[in-house]
Amino acid sequence: MDKKISVKVCLGTTCFVMGSSNLQELIDTVPKKYGDKVEVSGVPCLGLCSIDWEFSKAPYVKVDDEVIKEATVEKVLSAIDAKLK
Amino acid sequence: MFIDIACSQTKKYNQNAYGDYFVSKRYPEEARLIAVLSDGLGSGIKANILSCMTATMLLRFIENDQIPIRKAAEIIMNSLPVCKVRRISYSTFSAIDCNDDGSAKIVEEGNPDFVWIRDNEVIQPEYETIQSKTFKNRRLKVYKINLQLGDRLIFCSDGVTQCGLGGGRLKLGLRREGLIVLLQDKIKENPTISSSELSQYIINQAKNIETDRLPKDDISACVLYFREPRESLVFTGPPYHQEKDKQYAEMFANFKGKKAIAGGTTANLISRELNRPITMDTTISIGKLPSCSFMEGVDLVTEGILTLTKTLEYLENGEQDIDNAAGKLVKFLLDSDCISFMVGAKLNQAHYDPALPIEIEIRKNVIKKIAKVLQDKYFKKVNVQYM
What we know:
The complex is a heterodimer of chains A (85) and B (387).
Chain A: E1 5-10, H1 13-17, H2 24-34, E2 38-43, E3 61-63, E4 66-68, H3 73-84
Parallel strand pairs in A: 1-2
Antiparallel strand pairs in A: 1-3, 3-4
Chain B: E1 2-10, E2 20-27, E3 32-40, H1 44-64, H2 69-79, E4 91-99, E5 103-109, E6 115-118, E7 121-123, E8 128-131, E9 139-146, E10 152-156, H3 158-161, H4 175-189, H5 195-209, E11 219-227, E12 231-236, H6 245-254, E13 258-262, H7 264-274, E14 278-280, E15 285-286, E16 289-290, E17 293-295, E18 298-302, H8 305-317, H9 325-334, E19 338-343, H10 363-376, E20 381-386
């Protein structure tokens, strides 16, 4: 059996105000859609905004090692789909 | 010793202002606390003005240290005008000037004698009486006492001792004896009851005794409880010099008392330096704030600025019991007596991007404001260290 895909939603200040608060939906929809193949959780901070601040692409989500910039529910779901293919 | 002080009050029915006035101030550098309770003659606005003037003037006199407390009280006693209607002094007062080491000076004029409780027994201290030279009916009581760990002092206005006066059960009112019975029963039931709970209990009981639960006078009770301080530490923001991360993380780990972390980067830093994993709550946000995470040996882990800004708002407005990260931090802070803040001075540039939908405050400023409100409004001892 493959390893679980991990989805990490950054809950740091910048990401939160830039929209990760709207990603709550993932917590409910992902288990319904993918069962236990994918695991979603928040993380205190991915530390990306302080490196990438000039471009300001928050909110950030990590799907395994892939960083999703300006994350939305749709972007995250399609990244998961791509991984599962 | 830490002095846990609180005052609860209720107004005379049909009045829209308190006729009793309570004021207290802590002086952390001198380990000193002064509190004054004054009862203005009559009720409503008139009494409010009289008691407020007496209490604030007395506090100023005592804090200036130019004259001893007994002299200050004597001057006020001799100069208080006489109420035209009742021909007696227009306000009464009790004042205490005490130190963390337990030494205390107390003066009383006209208010009921304070109650001193140790091991749930009442102690009757000796006092000196000073007769007013100008008014025959005014007498000042001066006490010099030494308090021990676990002692409580209860000051009240005559609204407490006279509640229920002329009513069915207590013809002469509750009186001091009745108050002592109430206090001893409550302390027996809950030996470590906080001052705010005990003072509120006195007020509720006094109200219950009044006919139809309508207070016939302003009722105030002030409680001082001398106990071991509850210490806590809030670590927020990464240190300015990154090479000192380890040193500060160890200071955090070695702190004896309750601990909180406010900040995502900060939480990662502590987790990395102390090798303690972070686990998250199963939700992302509660009430417009990021949810909390968990770390072994840490009582509370929250996001940084947004949570701190909300915490400040709740503290200023006196809002409690709110189910989000800031509500938890408020409870954490209010359940402590001595609070230390370790504040990292490093800024995250991304927070100051004008494209952000809300303005993000500078951490130092938020902490400064939180420290001030904790000191002034909640009488906490606060210490802020920048790193």
